[in-house]
Amino acid sequence: MTAAATPHRHRTLLPYAAALIAVATLGACTGRDPGPSRTTPPASTTTSASPTTTTTTPVPSPTTSVDPVIAKIPANARPETQAGAAAFSEFYFEQLNRSFKDASPELLEGLFESSCKICVDLHKSASELKAASQHHDGDTLKVTFSSATIFNSRQRQVLVKLDQFAVPIVDSHGKRVDTTKAGSGAFVAVVTYKDHWVITDLGRPS
C-alpha cells in the first residue's frame, strides 16, 4: 500500500516516547469532630436524664477517577466483542487523522503498545509536527472499511481499508511547507484487550 499519512518531509516512521499520565484518585479530607460540648447544670437544678443527641458528620466518599484513555474511546469501540474490535481499529485511524490535523500526538496515547512499531513512528511524526508548529491543513485519512477477520481467545485481527488524501502541511502562519501524498490501501491491526482495546501491531494484509 502507499505510505501512511506523511508529515513534513514525508516522514512517517519515527520513535514513540510518550507515557500515559495516570489519574490519581482524590480522597476527600474531613475535619476533626470536636465532639459534643459539656455543660455544667446549676447546683439547684435537677439534672435531666434524657439522652444527649450526637450529630455525626458524614464522611464523603472518595472521588472516582476516570481512565483518560477509556474516556476518549467511543462507546461502540469499548466492548470486548468482534464489533468492538473493528470499531476501535477504525477509531485509531480517525485519531491518527486528527493528530496530524491538530498536531496533537496526545490523541494517540494509550491506544497502542510499543510493540507496534508503525504506531510508534506515526506518533513520533505527530510529535514532530507539533514541535515544528505545523499541521495538516485538512483530513489526510478516511477509513472506508473495518472488520474483524480473526477473533478468538488467542488472536484478534482487524482489516482496515483507508484512503489517504493530498493536503497541504502548513506552519503557524498558514504558509504551506509541504504536501502529503494521495493513495489508498489497507492495514491489518492486531489488537488485544486490557481494560480497553489497544493495537499491538500494524501490518499489510497477506
CA distance, first residue to last residue: 12 Å
Structural class: alpha+beta
User: Which percent bin holds the helix content?
Assistant: 10-25%
Q: What's the SSE pattern?
A: HHHEEEEEEE
Q: What is the averaged pLDDT score? A: 78
Q: What summary fits the major beta sheet?
A: 4 strands, antiparallel
Instruction: Figure out the total of helices.
Output: 3
| CATH classification, class level of the domain at 79-203 | Alpha Beta
Net shape: globular
The strand order across the widest sheet is 2-3-6-7
Q: Please identify, by name, the CATH architecture of the domain at 79-203.
A: Roll
Work out the number of β strands.
7
Structure commentary:
By secondary structure, this protein is α+β, with helices and mostly antiparallel strands. The chain has a domain at 79-203: Nuclear Transport Factor 2, Chain: A, CATH 3.10.450.240. The chain is built from three helices and seven strands. It has helices at 68-72, 82-101, 117-131, and strands at 135-136, 141-151, 156-164, 168-170, 176-179, 183-193, 197-203. The strands form two sheets. The chain has a four-stranded antiparallel sheet, with helices on one face. Strands 1-4-5 form a three-stranded antiparallel sheet. A hairpin with a 3-residue loop joins strand 6 and strand 7 (197-203). It starts with 67 loop residues before the first helix and ends with a strand. Mean pLDDT is 78; it is low at 1-48.
